[in-house]
Amino acid sequence: MPKIVDHDEQRRIIAAAAVRWIASRGLETLSQRNVAALSGRSKGSVQHYFPDKASLMFGALRWISGERAERERAAPGDPDAGDPYATLSRRLYAVLPTDDKRAEEWRVRLSLYVYAHNDPDMQAYLADHGRELAERGIADIRACQAKGAVRADLDPALTYQRMSAAVSGIAVAALANGGALHPAEQKAMLAEALKSITT
Question: Which candidate, 68, 54, 57, 74, places its Cα nearest to that of 23?
Fold first, then answer.
């Protein structure tokens, strides 16, 4: 009986290996051969899913975006599932580079953002992904306003943009200068940003 291959899983494994390679050695040395060795796949297998370096970078970007979306998504059965402010806070805190894995993802994300500037497909993907995150974030802000947890006079779209920018700024500051901001400091800075929108 022929072996059934889960192509989506293979694609994820290879993309995750590309992320690890970029995080540890940079975009410049990324190649199908290097990712094949790191993922335990043949070069031909990597080429099957990612025919060139650009598609490999795009795969890494999709993998990181998927990880972020998964982390931000409220887990079913969470005790604060009915508390929109707790949900909003958890989603924002979840993106901060407070551990090695998240710091690695941020380093790769920032590298890929620079590359994406000259890649129309990656730009389009990032725009779509950004809209999805914004729609969910704006809905969170509105739900918080309806419960009286966030000031009613604030524009939901602008408020979400402010909070998202705060997270990005904290992340960049945390990664700069060899990780100058410890997790507790990152969380304290985000807490101050959140305090500015609460009632």
Answer: 57
